[in-house]
UniProtKB/TrEMBL annotation:
Species per Swiss-Prot/TrEMBL record: Homo sapiens (Human)
Gene Ontology molecular-function annotations: GTPase activator activity; guanyl-nucleotide exchange factor activity
Phylogenetic placement of the source organism: Eukaryota, Metazoa, Chordata, Craniata, Vertebrata
InterPro entries: Abr/Bcr, DBL_dom_sf, DH_dom, GDS_CDC24_CS, PH-like_dom_sf
CDD domains tied to this protein: RhoGEF
Protein name (database record): BCR
One annotated GO biological process: intracellular signal transduction
SUPFAM superfamilies according to UniProt: DBL homology domain (DH-domain) (SSF48065), PH domain-like (SSF50729)
Pfam families: PH_19, RhoGEF
Length: 257
C-alpha cells in the first residue's frame, strides 16, 4: 500500500511538472503568433493611409475585410502573453492559469466580428493564422486538463475555457456554411445528421483536432480543410464506421492506456 501511495504521488508530481512544460510551449507559440500578427500590421498601416488619398490601393472597406480585427487580436494576445509569462517564470504547483485562457477565449469570441527572421509567410497564410490559433489553443487546453488533478483550483477554470473555445469553433462553422440536415443516399433513402462536434483524436501518440459527424446509421470523422479565397467549406475524411459495428471500451478496460 505504501509503494502504491508513493507511485501515485510520483504520478501527480510528474503531471504537475507537465503543466509547466505545456505552458512553456504555449508561451513560445504565442510569441511566434504575435510576430505573425505584427507582420500583418506592417502592410495594413500604409494601405490604410493610402485609402484616404485620391489614388487608394484598396478602399477602407476592402482593408477592413482583408485585415478583419487584426489590431484587436494583437492586443488580446499581447495581454494574454504578458499575463502568462510572469506566472510561468514564478511557477508553483498551485499556480493558476485558467482565468487567462477564459479571458482570452471570451475576448476572442466577442471580437469575432520563437521568432525566426528567415521564415517567410504569404499574406494568405498569415490571414489564416487567427482561426488556426483557436484550434491550437483548444488542443493545449486538452493537454493542460490531462495533467491537472480534478482537485486543483485551476481544473474548473480550464474546463470552462475549453467549453468556450469549442463553442467558438462550432459557431465559426455554423456561420461559414449552413448545415444540411439531411443528405441523399442511394435508393432515395435519407441520412439524417443528428449531431456534430469538435473532438480530439489520439493518432500515433499525437493529438489531432477532428470534426465528428453523427448520422442516423454512421459515425464520420473528418478534418476541416484550411480555407482561402471564400472557398466552400471542405473536409478530409479520416475514417467512418457504421453504428452497427461500433463498440465502446469501458474505463476499467483501458487501464494505463
Amino acid at each position: 500500500a505504501l509503494e502504491s501511495t508513493k507511485a501515485s504521488e510520483l504520478d501527480l508530481e510528474k503531471g504537475l511538472e507537465m503543466r509547466k512544460w505545456v505552458l512553456s510551449g504555449i508561451l513560445a507559440s504565442e510569441e511566434t503568433y504575435l510576430s505573425h500578427l505584427e507582420a500583418l500590421l506592417l502592410p495594413m498601416k500604409p494601405l490604410k493611409a493610402a485609402a484616404t488619398t485620391s489614388q487608394p490601393v484598396l478602399t477602407s472597406q476592402q482593408i477592413e475585410t482583408i485585415f478583419f480585427k487584426v489590431p484587436e487580436l494583437y492586443e488580446i494576445h499581447k495581454e494574454f502573453y504578458d499575463g502568462l509569462f510572469p506566472r510561468v517564470q514564478q511557477w508553483s504547483h498551485q499556480q493558476r492559469v485558467g482565468d487567462l485562457f477564459q479571458k482570452l477565449n471570451l475576448r476572442a469570441r466577442s471580437n469575432k466580428d520563437a521568432k525566426d527572421p528567415t521564415t517567410k509567410n504569404s499574406l494568405e497564410t498569415l490571414l489564416y493564422k487567427p482561426v488556426d490559433r483557436v484550434t491550437r489553443s483548444t488542443l493545449v487546453l486538452h493537454d493542460l486538463l490531462k495533467h491537472t488533478p480534478a482537485s486543483h483550483p485551476d481544473h474548473p477554470l480550464l474546463q470552462d475555457a475549453l467549453r468556450i473555445s469549442q463553442n467558438f469553433l462550432s459557431s465559426i462553422n455554423e456561420e461559414i456554411t449552413p448545415r444540411r440536415q439531411s443528405m441523399t443516399v442511394k435508393k432515395g433513402e435519407h441520412r439524417q445528421l443528428l449531431k456534430d462536434s469538435f473532438m480530439v483524436e489520439l493518432v500515433e501518440g499525437a493529438r489531432k483536432l477532428r470534426h465528428v459527424f453523427l448520422f442516423t446509421e454512421l459515425l464520420l470523422c473528418t478534418k476541416l480543410k484550411k480555407q482561402s479565397g471564400g472557398k466552400t467549406q471542405q473536409y478530409d475524411c479520416k475514417w467512418y464506421i457504421p453504428l452497427t459495428d461500433l463498440s465502446f471500451q469501458m474505463v476499467d478496460e483501458l487501464e494505463a492506456v
